[in-house]
Write a structure and sequence with these properties.
By secondary structure, this protein is mostly beta strands. The protein has 1 helix and 5 strands. It has a domain at about 20-85. Helices cover about 5% and strands about 40% of the residues. It starts with 13 loop residues before the first helix and ends in a 16-residue tail after the last strand.
Length: about 100
């Protein structure tokens, strides 16, 4: 190990004794950030460009950004921004050739 590489240690045990115990995922409209589409208990981290199937109306939204938000109340939220077409029937093909 070189002189600038050291084992990572936390300066104190505070973070270990105070873990983030609540983790949720929030899907929001990437154009209207105040419009919440769905809350999910637990954390998911979809890749950018992937599709999320929505309903009422049935349509597919495309993931455009994902980030992690840590709160002082020891909760964590995965925020997923999507492009939501808001139109019935706008779906993304499940086949690589678009068929």
């Amino acid at each position: 190990m070189s002189s600038h590489e050291e084992d990572w240690t936390h300066p104190n045990d505070w973070a270990l004794q105070n873990p983030y115990t609540t983790v949720r995922t929030l899907i929001v409209d990437g154009h209207e950030h105040s419009r919440q589409i769905a809350w999910i208990e637990g954390a998911i981290w979809p890749p950018i460009g992937s599709a999320i199937e929505l309903y009422e109306p049935n349509r597919d939204a495309t993931v455009r950004a994902v980030r992690l938000q840590l709160s002082p109340n020891r909760s964590a939220t995965v925020l997923i921004d999507v492009d939501d077409p808001r139109e019935t029937g706008r779906t993304i093909s499940r086949l690589p050739d678009g068929g």
